[in-house]
Amino acid sequence: MLMNSSLQLFLSPYPLMVFRGLSESWRTSASLQIFSVCGSLLVLPTTAAAQASAVAAPAVVKKTLLQELNLPAIWFLVACSLLIVWFVIDLYVKSTRSRLLPPVAVERLRLLFQRGDYQGAFDFAGSQACLFGDVVHAALKSAAGGQRASEEAAAHALAGGNAYFQTRIAYLSVIGVIAPMVGLTGTVLGMIDAFAVMGQAGASDPSKLSGAIGHVLHATAGGLIVAIPAFVFYYLLRNRVAHEIHAVSSAAAELFRRFPYDEMARKELKGGESCAARPTWSAETRGSPEPSPV
Fold this sequence. Notes:
Blueprint: H1 2-11, H2 13-20, H3 24-56, H4 65-68, H5 72-94, H6 97-100, H7 103-115, H8 118-127, H9 131-141, H10 147-201, H11 206-255, H12 261-264, H13 283-287
């Protein structure tokens, strides 16, 4: 109303009659003052509306990352991520070339083999805490049974070392499969709770529902964040272990090349004696007559 009355006063013929009776300077000054007053009246409603909307707008509550991730499934995924870190560090350290195939042990066994001191090589290989030592020790222990028995014993020792690594590497695959399922389960349970609350309170404010859904989707994102590195390290460590096992097998095969199996036949090394012996029959069994055919 105030703005309309001001405009009517400004557009009425009375101010025009007054302007004609004034001088040029007074006329210019009065025109500027009238225009400034009208401009203020035009801007006033817009400013008042903006202030009212600013007062009515709700304050935005910012949540920290821990508050956003405060879900039961997230803490399980945190535990899985810690397990991944532990498995990766442990497997990487234990699968290094210096742990599986120590250069000092390889050179020492090569010298013993060149001297023909197989008893010394057997004792030294048994004292080494490495896969190469286990393979050589098992092969020398079964050398009295021939080449085939020695190679089978070496292959069995290699398979045992490989099984140790592959079993632990498989845990990374298990975590990679379970983590997305756990995250998805947390998301579904959170959405069930969100829809239940909206069903009781009514769907008058859709922003609450979208905020609740966005909150529980952090569980799915957390599951994927845990699963992707688990699968990456699973394949990297599996290939690494396979490469190192092949290196140990090649070194053992080179060491036993042209090994005198014929001379070692039925000559067991000290500390590697076999437990089985020839069967002993009791006197009653040897003296009893054979049963006659019916």
